[in-house]
Amino acid sequence: MVVPTLQRTDKPPPTHVAIIMDGNGRWAKARGLPRTAGHAKGAEAVRRTVEAAGDQGIRYLTLFGFSSENWKRPKDEIGDLMGLMRRYLRSEIAEIHAQGIRLKVIGERPRLDTDIVALIEDAEALTKDNERMMLVLAISYGARQELAGAVRQLARAVQSGDLAPEDIDEAAVGRSLMTAGIPDPDMLIRTSGEQRISNFLLWQLAYTELVFVDRLWPDFGATDLADAITEFHRRDRRYGATDNSLRAEQPRP
Predict the structure, then answer these.
(1) CA 89 remoteness from chain centre
(2) Which listed residue (10, 22, 55, 186) is catalytic?
(3) Considering 70, 184, 214, 219, which one is annotated as catalytic?
(4) Is 198 left (phi over 0), alpha (psi -120 to 50) or beta?
(5) What span, in angstroms and rounded, lies between the C-alpha atoms of 61 and 15?
(6) How confident is the model at residue 7 (pLDDT cuts 50, 70, 90)?
(7) In DSSP terms, which residues pair with 187 in a beta bridge?
(8) Would you call 70 a catalytic residue per the annotation?
């Protein structure tokens, strides 16, 4: 489904919005520019979207910045992306901190250069007490890899005697994920018109509303986010139940 331009809503926003930021390369190609120009414009869209999410009252914003599969790209492009990541972490964190936003990065940090890991750790430490919104950046992240890591963690706990196999339930798995303590996304937005989730938050997206927009990521902004939220409020979220059963579960006054 492609979401049309919709009117804004006065309803409360979703608590947690996740975004697959897709289309940087196509944006650049359409303008006869190198892919690096698309990535640079995409970084500007990150800035706009973080600000818009805070203005909307969203409490958690998760952005898929660099996947485990992206390591297969040409070395020059990877180098450019890592350079953009360094510049973002150096130039934007002070503003993020001033806005009361907490930063958390999920993904396989050992694959990143040590200076980038140090920048991430410094940014997380600086913003750890901020409460207005949490910005989660998925960098060197893959959901299958995350799930495999959670399984290994649970297996080690069983092996050491700290956990009984029968105590492994959905909550135990959730506590073993990189997103432990973060509510599952209410809405996932993917830009550029593609309609797949590309190994992103496979466990966490079980009941997430998926919204696909044609806009390429470098052109994404506050109006697009507001339109996606309007579309979110048009959905009937039943979590596998019927309307009647949901009403029956509501406490009586």
Answers:
(1) 17
(2) 22
(3) 70
(4) left
(5) 9
(6) very low
(7) 17, 209
(8) yes
Token duo for residue 145 = 């890899």
What's at 72, amino acid-wise? K
For position 238, what pLDDT does the model report? 73
Write the CA distances from 226 to 5, 57, 232, integer angstroms: 9, 11, 10
236: pLDDT confidence band, cut at 50, 70 and 90? confident
CATH topology of domain 21-234: Undecaprenyl pyrophosphate synthetase (3.40.1180)
Residue 243: per-residue pLDDT: 61
The dihedral built from the CA positions of residue 141, 142, 143 and 148, taken in this order, carries a sign that is negative
* Mean local confidence (pLDDT), 70-97: 93
Q: Is the model's pTM score more than 0.85?
A: yes
Tokens 């909307």 correspond to what residue? 56
Could you tell me the residue ranges of all domains in the chain?
A: 21-234
pLDDT tens per residue, range 160-201: 999 999 999 999 999 999 999 999 999 999 999 999 999 999
Distance, CA of 68 to chain centre: 14
CA 69 to chain CA centroid, Å, is: 16
Which residues are CB-contacts of 231 (< 8 A; sequence separation ≥ 6)? 3, 6, 211
**β-strand partners of 197:** none
- Determine whether 76 is an active site residue: no
